[in-house]
Amino acid sequence: MIYLDSAATTPVRREVLDEMWPYLTAEFGNPSSSHELGHRAAEALKQARAKIAAILGCRASEITFTSGGTEADNLAVKGIALATPRGRHIVTTPIEHEAILASCDYLRRLHSFEITMLPVDRFGMVSPAAFADALRDDTTLATVMLANNEVGTIQPIAELAALAHARGIPFHTDAVQAAGALDLNVTALGVDALSLSGHKLGTPKGIGALYLRSRLPIEPLLHGGGQERGRRSGTENVAAAVGLAKALELAATDRADRMSRLADLRDALISGILAAVPTAILTGHPTDRLPGNASFCFPGTSGEAILLQLEERGILCSSGSACAAGRDEPSHVLLAMGLSPEVAQTALRLSLPDTLAPESVPEITLAVRDACEALRAVEPRI
Ligand code: PLP
User: Fold this and answer.
1) Which of 12, 155, 172, 197, when mutated, tests ligand 1's pocket best, judged by the most ligand atoms within 8 Å of its CB?
2) Cα–Cα distance for residue pair 192/334, rounded to 1 Å
3) Does 70 sit in the ligand 1 pocket, CB within 6 Å?
4) Which residue from 246, 336, 211 is spatially nearest to 283, judged by alpha carbons?
5) Which end of the chain is more exposed for a tag (fewer CB within 10 A), N or C?
């Protein structure tokens, strides 16, 4: 089996599990307890926070642990928007993850916010000029993802954040897919808030974090015992927080070398597939894309049918976001990039693990070609 769905999730890394194990067993204390076991759990949490802060180049107090990327996105969008008295206007893009889009929609429906959806070009790229034009005196938040989960396009976040700051507007980025592949230094990115999720990097599912620049007002979503400096109540998942810190450290080690090797494999795969299936369309930006993302449309086929064909050939991948899998709707990302619903229904996303063996590239290329040919035999349209 070749697993090419790393954008959906990844296996727990051995080193991560080893680091977590003591806090799942002997060191099971509640970090709020005043006895020794509690103190040790609190210390582990403190160290995990400090390690993540070191990778992001921020203060430990600026990291809030969450239950994952979805909660980090919800907390950023709703929490910042509802805490900022500036107005009720948000600028975002139509290619964001559902966690952002649905949070914006919630604010529109229940709190009378106005949402500006910036157009993207055919590569899924936001135009800084259009972004600047969309900012208003009553804009409370701008949120644009660092890298797209379906097509891998990387946005010019530093430039967009600078434009927002020139108008005094806080800027959030969803870095869930970028983590592990790109630099997450929040000063270089210039962002005020950044969402992370562990399970894309080898932690168990259900842990994430939100970086929030200090003094940025935030309205919590969860009320209770006041953990996480009152930003996120609930007994902390100490073991998973420790795992997230370890996973981010591992992902930062030799990142440039590992990602350049992965980008070479991605490029070989893209050119191989475009040559083997001449009607294939590469989706996403040709160069400004995640090193592990190779995504396509195969006009005249069906994405779901290709998935089944590939699974029969031992290759596991997806047609787009895991959240949308099983829904019979074309991807909102591909539609926003100007593809027709018919073509968008033929999407395939290969998201490569950084352990991918070079020998697998020709095997995957042939499997994709054979899958398309098998479908053409049934449905002679490609
Ligand atoms: N944001 C992006 C870009 C994602 O790809 C995902 C997950 O696929 C999320 C947010 C949600 O993260 P989680 O699965 O941790 O809730």
Assistant:
1) 197
2) 28
3) yes
4) 336
5) N
